[in-house]
Specification:
Blueprint: H1 4-7, H2 10-26, H3 34-55, H4 61-94, H5 98-111
Helix pairs in contact: 3-4, 4-5
């Protein structure tokens, strides 16, 4: 079973393993290696099955990057929608005409 270390060149692999050994010796983990961060982020979006797909070489590194980019955009859009709903839920009760503001806000949210 191949992993990200198998995809690296010999110089990068030895440099990363040396850095890992130094971190372990110091007893501190001050920085997450980029490949570990990449796999953790991928697992956050796609779960254990996604992580296994990477480890089993069922998907390529390019596909991992494309899927991550897509999920980041989806997440950003979702967070923007949540922010709109948050503004709507706070501002409606504070308006002079809450019922009208509520109806208008619902129409605005559903129309987008």
């Amino acid at each position: 079973m191949a992993n990200l270390l198998d995809l690296m060149g010999e110089a990068d692999r030895s440099r990363m393993l040396d850095a890992y050994k130094k971190r372990i010796e110091k007893g501190k983990d001050t920085k997450i290696p980029p490949e570990t961060y990449l796999m953790c982020e991928f697992a956050t979006y796609f779960g254990w099955e996604g992580l296994q797909a990477i480890r089993n070489n069922d998907i390529t590194l390019e596909e991992v990057y494309v899927l991550l980019e897509g999920m980041r955009k989806v997440r950003s859009r979702h967070l923007a929608e949540l922010a709109k709903v948050g503004v709507f839920s706070v501002s409606t009760p504070l308006s002079k005409h809450p019922k009208a503001a509520f109806r208008e806000g619902v129409k605005r949210i559903q129309g987008e």
